[in-house]
Write a structure and sequence with these properties.
The complex is a heterodimer.
Chain A lengths: L3 H30 L2 H22 L5 H24 L8 H5 L2 H23 L6 H12 L4 H7 L4 H17 L9 H23 L10 H17 L4 H14 L6 E2 L2 E2 L12 H14 L7 H13 L9 H14 L3 H15 L1 H11 L9 H13 L3 H14 L3 H15 L1
Antiparallel strand pairs in A: 1-2
Helix pairs in contact in A: 1-2, 1-3, 1-5, 2-3, 3-5, 5-6, 6-8, 6-9, 7-8, 9-10, 9-11, 10-11, 11-12, 11-13, 12-13, 13-14, 14-15, 15-16, 16-17, 17-18, 18-19
Chain B lengths: L1 E10 L13 H9 L4 E6 L7 E5 L5 E5 L7 E11 L2 H10 L5 E6 L6
Antiparallel strand pairs in B: 1-5, 1-6, 2-5, 3-4
Classes of the chains: A mainly alpha, B alpha+beta.
Chain lengths: 420, 112
Amino acid sequence: MPGGVASAEVAAAVADAHRSQWAFVLAATVRVTGNIDAAEEAVQDAYASALETWGARGVPDNPGAWLTTAARRRALDMHRRAATARRALPKLIEPGEAASDTEAIVEAATESIRDDRLRLIFICCHPALSFDAQVALTLRLICGLSTADAARAFLVPEPTMAARITRAKKKIQAANIPYRVPDASELGERVNGVLAVVYLVYTTGHTAPSGANLMRRDLAERAYELARMLRQLLPTDPAVAGLLALILLTDARRNARLDGRELALLADQDRSVWDHTAITEGAALVRESLSKHPPHRFALMAAIAAVHDQSRSWSETDWQEILGLYDLLIETWTSPVVQLNRAIALGFAHGFEAGLAVLDDLSAEPQLARYHYLQAARADFLTRLGRTEEARLAYEEAIVLTDNEAERAFLERRLADVAG
Amino acid sequence: MSKYLILIFQDEANVRQPQGESITTSYQEFMQRRSSSLLAGAALERTTTATSVRPDDAGGFVVTDGPFAESKEALGGYFLIEAADLDEALQIAKEVPTATGVEVRPVRVVSP
């Protein structure tokens, strides 16, 4: 079929540009429209026209620049049409600006678009928006995910996700949430807000809270790309370095996490299939991000992941080091989940009896009472201590509490081992 | 520039305001410092003095004693401010000397 292969190539090129260039093109277009909604529409049109034009004339050398020019032209057209309709409105943009040639736009604007992308990120993650809305806007505006895909990723009906995005955009406009990079005085706090969003996208993709697949790879990859983009835009921020390190060091084990359809624990994973390039890069970032005091929670979490990643085998794991890092982490981030992980490290460092005692204390925490990992950890320690009847009960409870099928399959196998 | 209403909430059980004194020194300082942003403002009497008026089903009104919505934190005062954007409005809101907290609401812009 003539053109069949070519159109597949074009579709792949457009999809690739969608993933890697969306935020760049949108940020550059907002510069012309001064309005996110109008820019978004123009960018969507530009991607749609790319399919057709690239098919006829070939994929351009710099797809991002081509898309930026197309989106800006489209935005100008839309603006002119609206202006003609209303007549009275003054002309906001000179036509020459968008008509200038592609390379000039890219060269002149690359530096300012660096800031534009940051502005876009900071408006999406503004603390005046609900956390759910921040996540939704980030996926939509920075990653270019469709509303339907964002809804699927977070297991909410599409109209719910659409309403969430619309409400957030309305608030940005009505409350006049500024499109700017925060001042140095508030930058640290605002970066933390952005990182919390990226981390949530990552954890949702890494271990899907429910459903058949343990990992929703697409979300994890989006989070990785966001962290990369932030690292490029804020190269000296230690918290950003910490989060990128954490994602690299956790994701380095992705090919070893599933054995068939079942979860493979760190202890049982085939360490030869870990991504050692990612581990090397992540470990260097950990060293960099730990140089700031007090260390950021992501730097400490990444450091813990690095100890595991750099250990040749499970039995050689340096549990004293890991326990020390958890002690530091609890000083900056006292979450029940961190306390749970610290208790597990304590068990391996100082004996399962001691670890179990702390786990039992934690069972009283309301936030952990229905958390399946706590029961799974208790079950494991009880098994190691030979208290099989109690272990069996703990596994049964953990199975009731988990929604993830891969995790349930794993727990059921462990239960069968204990019972048998 | 945008306009915002800063609604000041307080736990009335814990507010001991001497009779006749309208505002405290800390409020005077705040108002002086932010005078260029403040368009209007007032402290309100306690909710025990409030009267609510609701339309009834018969085209008339029901007048009742008490605030519109009963809650632990009651509206105790307000400032109408002008700010460049929400970030500036939130900065001003953080400086309002209240222990309970405030709500910042954009004033709706009516297009001509």
